[in-house]
Amino acid sequence: MPGYPSDLIDLVKEDLAQREECLDYATIKRMAAEAPAPRDGLGALHQPGVSVIAEIIRACPARGPLADIPDPAGLAQLFVKAGARIVSVQTERHYYRGSLLDLDLVRRAVDVPILVKDFVVAPYQIHELRSHGADLVQLNVELLQQDQLEALLDRVESLGMHAVLEVHCPAEASRALEAGAKVIAINARHLGTNYIDRTLFGEIATGLPAEVLRIGEAGVRGPRDLLSYAGAGIDAVLVGGSVVTADDPASIISDLVITGAHPACPGRE
Questions:
Q1: Which CDD domains does the record cross-reference, listed alphabetically (predicted)?
Q2: Which DSSP category does 196 fall into?
Q3: pLDDT over 50 (residue 1)
Q4: Whole-model pTM?
Protein backbone atom coordinates (compact mmCIF):
# COMPACT_ATOMS: atom_id res chain seq x y z
CA MET A 1 0.00 0.00 0.00
CA PRO A 2 2.34 2.80 1.08
CA GLY A 3 4.52 2.88 -2.05
CA TYR A 4 8.02 3.16 -0.62
CA PRO A 5 10.76 4.05 -3.14
CA SER A 6 11.98 0.89 -4.86
CA ASP A 7 15.63 1.53 -4.00
CA LEU A 8 15.07 2.47 -0.36
CA ILE A 9 16.06 -0.83 1.25
CA ASP A 10 19.07 -1.25 -1.05
CA LEU A 11 20.28 2.19 0.03
CA VAL A 12 19.69 1.33 3.69
CA LYS A 13 21.74 -1.85 3.32
CA GLU A 14 24.56 -0.01 1.53
CA ASP A 15 24.75 2.55 4.33
CA LEU A 16 24.67 -0.24 6.92
CA ALA A 17 27.57 -2.07 5.24
CA GLN A 18 29.66 1.12 5.31
CA ARG A 19 28.99 1.68 9.00
CA GLU A 20 29.85 -1.94 9.80
CA GLU A 21 33.24 -1.41 8.15
CA CYS A 22 33.93 1.35 10.67
CA LEU A 23 32.46 -0.41 13.74
CA ASP A 24 32.17 -4.18 13.69
CA TYR A 25 29.25 -6.05 15.22
CA ALA A 26 31.09 -6.97 18.42
CA THR A 27 32.01 -3.34 19.02
CA ILE A 28 28.52 -1.98 18.44
CA LYS A 29 27.06 -4.64 20.75
CA ARG A 30 29.48 -3.60 23.47
CA MET A 31 28.59 0.06 22.98
CA ALA A 32 24.89 -0.76 23.27
CA ALA A 33 25.48 -2.71 26.47
CA GLU A 34 27.42 0.19 27.97
CA ALA A 35 24.81 2.82 27.09
CA PRO A 36 22.56 4.25 29.85
CA ALA A 37 19.42 2.17 30.47
CA PRO A 38 16.48 2.82 28.14
CA ARG A 39 13.68 5.11 29.28
CA ASP A 40 10.21 3.61 29.70
CA GLY A 41 8.53 4.33 26.38
CA LEU A 42 5.70 1.91 27.07
CA GLY A 43 4.99 3.64 30.37
CA ALA A 44 4.77 6.99 28.59
CA LEU A 45 2.17 5.58 26.21
CA HIS A 46 0.20 4.01 29.06
CA GLN A 47 -0.47 7.36 30.71
CA PRO A 48 -4.11 8.53 30.79
CA GLY A 49 -5.59 10.25 27.76
CA VAL A 50 -4.19 10.36 24.23
CA SER A 51 -0.42 10.76 24.14
CA VAL A 52 1.29 13.08 21.66
CA ILE A 53 4.47 11.94 19.91
CA ALA A 54 6.25 14.78 18.08
CA GLU A 55 8.67 13.98 15.29
CA ILE A 56 11.93 15.43 14.00
CA ILE A 57 11.57 14.90 10.24
CA ARG A 58 13.08 16.91 7.39
CA ALA A 59 11.59 15.19 4.34
CA CYS A 60 9.56 12.19 3.19
CA PRO A 61 8.99 10.46 -0.15
CA ALA A 62 5.38 11.61 -0.43
CA ARG A 63 5.95 15.30 0.24
CA GLY A 64 9.62 15.86 -0.50
CA PRO A 65 11.54 18.42 1.59
CA LEU A 66 9.64 19.64 4.65
CA ALA A 67 11.99 21.69 6.83
CA ASP A 68 15.74 22.23 7.24
CA ILE A 69 15.73 21.84 11.07
CA PRO A 70 19.23 23.21 11.75
CA ASP A 71 18.72 22.72 15.51
CA PRO A 72 17.01 19.35 16.15
CA ALA A 73 17.88 19.50 19.85
CA GLY A 74 16.18 22.86 20.28
CA LEU A 75 13.10 21.69 18.39
CA ALA A 76 12.91 18.55 20.53
CA GLN A 77 13.09 20.68 23.69
CA LEU A 78 10.27 22.83 22.33
CA PHE A 79 8.18 19.69 21.70
CA VAL A 80 8.71 18.45 25.25
CA LYS A 81 8.01 21.84 26.81
CA ALA A 82 4.70 21.90 24.87
CA GLY A 83 3.76 18.53 26.39
CA ALA A 84 4.89 15.80 23.98
CA ARG A 85 5.39 12.56 25.92
CA ILE A 86 7.73 11.04 23.34
CA VAL A 87 10.01 12.55 20.69
CA SER A 88 10.38 10.65 17.43
CA VAL A 89 13.56 10.99 15.37
CA GLN A 90 13.71 9.92 11.73
CA THR A 91 17.28 8.76 11.01
CA GLU A 92 17.07 7.50 7.39
CA ARG A 93 19.24 9.85 5.32
CA HIS A 94 18.35 9.40 1.64
CA TYR A 95 14.62 10.08 1.54
CA TYR A 96 14.07 11.51 5.04
CA ARG A 97 17.33 13.48 5.45
CA GLY A 98 17.86 12.21 8.97
CA SER A 99 20.97 10.89 10.72
CA LEU A 100 22.31 9.26 13.84
CA LEU A 101 23.74 12.67 14.71
CA ASP A 102 20.18 13.96 15.02
CA LEU A 103 19.49 11.13 17.45
CA ASP A 104 22.59 11.99 19.48
CA LEU A 105 21.67 15.67 19.67
CA VAL A 106 18.07 14.99 20.67
CA ARG A 107 19.09 12.38 23.24
CA ARG A 108 21.36 14.86 24.97
CA ALA A 109 18.65 17.54 24.91
CA VAL A 110 15.58 15.78 26.34
CA ASP A 111 14.75 13.29 29.09
CA VAL A 112 11.56 11.82 27.60
CA PRO A 113 11.67 8.52 25.70
CA ILE A 114 12.83 8.66 22.08
CA LEU A 115 11.24 6.65 19.28
CA VAL A 116 13.55 6.08 16.32
CA LYS A 117 11.97 5.70 12.91
CA ASP A 118 14.20 4.16 10.28
CA PHE A 119 14.12 1.05 8.11
CA VAL A 120 15.56 -1.66 10.33
CA VAL A 121 16.56 -4.82 8.49
CA ALA A 122 19.37 -6.24 10.65
CA PRO A 123 20.23 -6.79 14.34
CA TYR A 124 23.27 -4.52 13.95
CA GLN A 125 20.97 -1.51 13.54
CA ILE A 126 19.12 -2.30 16.76
CA HIS A 127 22.33 -2.38 18.81
CA GLU A 128 23.47 0.75 16.99
CA LEU A 129 20.28 2.65 17.83
CA ARG A 130 20.48 1.53 21.47
CA SER A 131 24.08 2.75 21.65
CA HIS A 132 22.87 6.17 20.47
CA GLY A 133 20.11 6.34 23.09
CA ALA A 134 16.98 4.96 21.44
CA ASP A 135 14.17 3.79 23.74
CA LEU A 136 11.65 2.62 21.15
CA VAL A 137 12.42 1.34 17.64
CA GLN A 138 9.97 1.20 14.78
CA LEU A 139 9.82 -1.94 12.63
CA ASN A 140 8.01 -1.81 9.29
CA VAL A 141 5.89 -4.94 8.92
CA GLU A 142 5.44 -4.57 5.18
CA LEU A 143 9.16 -4.63 4.45
CA LEU A 144 10.09 -7.63 6.61
CA GLN A 145 9.50 -11.36 6.29
CA GLN A 146 7.68 -12.84 9.28
CA ASP A 147 10.70 -14.67 10.71
CA GLN A 148 12.76 -11.49 10.27
CA LEU A 149 10.09 -9.41 11.98
CA GLU A 150 9.88 -11.75 14.96
CA ALA A 151 13.66 -11.96 15.34
CA LEU A 152 14.10 -8.18 15.19
CA LEU A 153 11.25 -7.58 17.66
CA ASP A 154 12.85 -10.04 20.08
CA ARG A 155 16.20 -8.31 19.68
CA VAL A 156 14.69 -4.88 20.42
CA GLU A 157 13.06 -6.16 23.60
CA SER A 158 16.17 -8.09 24.67
CA LEU A 159 17.97 -4.74 24.90
CA GLY A 160 15.29 -3.26 27.15
CA MET A 161 13.66 -1.17 24.43
CA HIS A 162 10.17 -1.50 22.97
CA ALA A 163 9.29 -2.21 19.35
CA VAL A 164 6.66 -0.17 17.52
CA LEU A 165 5.36 -2.18 14.58
CA GLU A 166 4.13 0.00 11.72
CA VAL A 167 1.25 -1.37 9.65
CA HIS A 168 -0.77 -0.11 6.70
CA CYS A 169 -3.60 -2.64 6.45
CA PRO A 170 -5.45 -5.27 8.54
CA ALA A 171 -3.33 -8.12 7.14
CA GLU A 172 -0.15 -6.44 8.37
CA ALA A 173 -1.78 -5.83 11.76
CA SER A 174 -2.46 -9.57 12.00
CA ARG A 175 1.20 -10.28 11.24
CA ALA A 176 2.25 -7.76 13.89
CA LEU A 177 0.10 -9.50 16.50
CA GLU A 178 1.47 -12.89 15.46
CA ALA A 179 4.99 -11.52 16.00
CA GLY A 180 4.07 -10.46 19.53
CA ALA A 181 3.58 -6.71 19.11
CA LYS A 182 2.78 -4.66 22.20
CA VAL A 183 2.61 -1.39 20.25
CA ILE A 184 1.19 -1.00 16.73
CA ALA A 185 1.46 2.20 14.69
CA ILE A 186 -1.20 2.55 12.01
CA ASN A 187 0.09 4.60 9.09
CA ALA A 188 -2.79 5.60 6.85
CA ARG A 189 -0.70 7.52 4.30
CA HIS A 190 -0.09 6.08 0.84
CA LEU A 191 3.38 7.37 0.00
CA GLY A 192 2.86 6.99 -3.73
CA THR A 193 -0.14 9.34 -3.84
CA ASN A 194 0.02 11.09 -0.43
CA TYR A 195 -3.60 9.98 0.08
CA ILE A 196 -4.62 9.42 3.71
CA ASP A 197 -7.32 6.83 4.37
CA ARG A 198 -8.75 8.01 7.67
CA THR A 199 -11.14 5.06 7.89
CA LEU A 200 -8.13 2.77 8.33
CA PHE A 201 -7.63 3.76 11.97
CA GLY A 202 -11.02 2.45 13.04
CA GLU A 203 -10.79 -0.57 10.75
CA ILE A 204 -7.54 -1.75 12.33
CA ALA A 205 -7.64 -0.33 15.87
CA THR A 206 -11.01 -1.80 16.82
CA GLY A 207 -9.78 -5.27 15.92
CA LEU A 208 -6.73 -5.19 18.18
CA PRO A 209 -6.61 -6.70 21.68
CA ALA A 210 -7.18 -4.19 24.46
CA GLU A 211 -3.66 -4.62 25.83
CA VAL A 212 -2.04 -3.57 22.55
CA LEU A 213 -1.23 0.15 22.35
CA ARG A 214 -2.30 1.90 19.15
CA ILE A 215 -0.52 4.87 17.57
CA GLY A 216 -2.14 6.84 14.75
CA GLU A 217 0.30 8.15 12.15
CA ALA A 218 -0.41 10.55 9.25
CA GLY A 219 -2.93 13.32 8.82
CA VAL A 220 -2.93 14.75 12.36
CA ARG A 221 -3.30 18.49 11.78
CA GLY A 222 -5.09 19.59 14.95
CA PRO A 223 -7.46 18.72 17.81
CA ARG A 224 -10.30 17.66 15.51
CA ASP A 225 -8.14 14.94 13.98
CA LEU A 226 -6.96 13.79 17.41
CA LEU A 227 -10.54 13.47 18.61
CA SER A 228 -11.52 11.57 15.48
CA TYR A 229 -8.62 9.14 15.84
CA ALA A 230 -9.25 8.73 19.57
CA GLY A 231 -12.85 7.85 18.80
CA ALA A 232 -11.54 5.13 16.49
CA GLY A 233 -9.53 3.61 19.36
CA ILE A 234 -6.15 5.31 19.03
CA ASP A 235 -4.07 5.71 22.24
CA ALA A 236 -1.47 8.12 20.82
CA VAL A 237 -0.94 10.28 17.76
CA LEU A 238 2.33 10.99 15.98
CA VAL A 239 2.72 14.41 14.39
CA GLY A 240 5.59 15.29 12.11
CA GLY A 241 5.15 17.15 8.85
CA SER A 242 2.32 19.37 10.08
CA VAL A 243 4.46 20.47 13.02
CA VAL A 244 7.90 20.99 11.47
CA THR A 245 6.37 23.09 8.67
CA ALA A 246 4.31 25.25 11.04
CA ASP A 247 5.14 28.82 12.05
CA ASP A 248 4.34 27.97 15.67
CA PRO A 249 4.94 24.24 16.27
CA ALA A 250 4.69 24.61 20.06
CA SER A 251 1.12 25.90 19.74
CA ILE A 252 0.09 22.91 17.64
CA ILE A 253 1.63 20.44 20.09
CA SER A 254 0.09 22.23 23.07
CA ASP A 255 -3.40 22.22 21.50
CA LEU A 256 -3.11 18.49 20.82
CA VAL A 257 -1.86 17.77 24.34
CA ILE A 258 -4.71 19.74 25.93
CA THR A 259 -7.28 17.99 23.76
CA GLY A 260 -5.79 14.55 24.43
CA ALA A 261 -5.90 15.16 28.19
CA HIS A 262 -9.50 16.43 28.30
CA PRO A 263 -11.85 14.17 30.29
CA ALA A 264 -14.27 14.06 27.36
CA CYS A 265 -11.60 12.74 24.98
CA PRO A 266 -11.65 8.96 24.46
CA GLY A 267 -8.37 7.44 25.55
CA ARG A 268 -6.63 5.33 28.15
CA GLU A 269 -7.86 5.78 31.71
A1: IGPS
A2: E
A3: no
A4: 0.96
